[in-house]
Design brief:
Rossmann fold, globular, 50% helix, 4 helices, 133 residues, four-stranded parallel β-sheet, alpha/beta
Length: 133
């Protein structure tokens, strides 16, 4: 990988750990794609990236949506020709007494927190395997 910039994709970058991880990777030289479901939440990270002139680009990626995952990962690979690091951070905490939460709420959380990560992994692994060859 001499002469090539490492490329990172971070899901759930609109706040919290994903936000800070995306900034850290970009600050340390990774060309970073900070992905999030809702691009309306991208203002803060985009402003920081522009101010610091770090290699960070915000993209839309909803881990609950197969097409969104495929489109985002295709875009990253098409623009950079590689993906070296993936941080599957997208997720959320469901709070409340078990008896007061619906099964549907638990299913929605599992869809995001578990199957969302699986969707991303399934799309990225073939790219990463080809890079090793």
């Amino acid at each position: 990988m001499q002469g090539e910039k490492n490329v990172a994709l971070v899901t759930g970058s609109s706040s919290g750990i994903g936000f800070e991880t995306a900034l850290l990777l970009a600050r340390t030289g990774f060309y970073t794609y900070a992905s999030m479901r809702n691009l309306e939440k991208s203002k803060n990270i985009a402003e920081i990236a522009n101010k610091e002139k770090i290699p960070l680009q915000v993209i839309q990626l909803d881990v609950d949506d197969d097409k969104s995952v495929k489109d985002a990962i295709y875009r990253v690979n098409n623009e950079q020709g590689r993906i070296d690091v993936v941080v599957n951070n997208a997720g959320y905490l469901l709070i409340g007494p078990v008896e007061e939460l619906s099964i549907e709420e638990f299913k929605e959380q599992f869809e995001t927190n578990f199957f969302g990560a699986i969707r991303v992994i399934k799309e990225v692994l073939p790219i990463m395997r080809r890079q090793r060859a």
